[in-house]
Model the fold of this input.
Amino acid sequence: MSWIESIQKAINYMEENLLNDLTMDQIAQEVNSSVFHFQRIFSILTDMSIADYIRRRRLTLAAQELMNTEHKIIDLAYKYGYDSPEAFTKAFRKQHNVTPSEARKQQGPLQSYNRLIIQVSLKGAEPMKYKIVEKEKFQVVGVKRTYNCQNGENTQGIPLFWDEMNNKGMDDVLFKLNNGEIKGVLGVCVPDKHYKENSLMDYWIATEHVGEVPDNLLTMEVPAAKWVVFEVHGPMPDAMQNTWKQIYSEWFPSNPYEPAGSAELEVYSDEDPFSPDLYSEIWISIK
Done:
């Protein structure tokens, strides 16, 4: 089963069980995936976490019921997974910009999130430049934080982590330490060693380094692997985000490889990050 088919199967499962207690473990098991990897690919392809999708769909259906039935607001709150009418009203207002009572009186437009249908895009008009490389194990040094993929913490936390480290001058430190084969500062995404049982990931801001490590930095060994290395051309962050989408919506569905489920790297140069000529890379371990 391809990743696109897996995502659609999981969406179908979520839709069939929107009114039940859904866990990331259950959803990932439906498509025989780790929680970590499934959540990551889902967010790359859809620009939202699974928790966001479920919440938006439930509140869309709740709004439809408010408009078309006489069901009490308190009953709808419990039906759609909220512990109290107050919690339901707060979430409803955040999505629709009106309260449930105002929606029932048709006071203002509602915001509907429709059921997702994932489609493979095999355009071929925008060629992807890549190479397959085999690389022995190597060491990276840097700083790391652990994030929970289940609640979308990683998508919010990682950009803040970069901002914090850049403000502290960490990028300059890492560029000076960079003496390995991979040139640049790395964003390294690594599933927790028990990733099949949980949704935690470690995210490193690091660089490949051989030799003595400063006391204030951590070190990690990246195992030997076969990698597909994609060229990324253009300013950040759009060029990187667009390439990730193209990889999973176009490249993997039309090639005989699949992700190995281990480390993934983003490689950044010290050039102007907003330059239209900026060159970066994405490394994904494959099998």
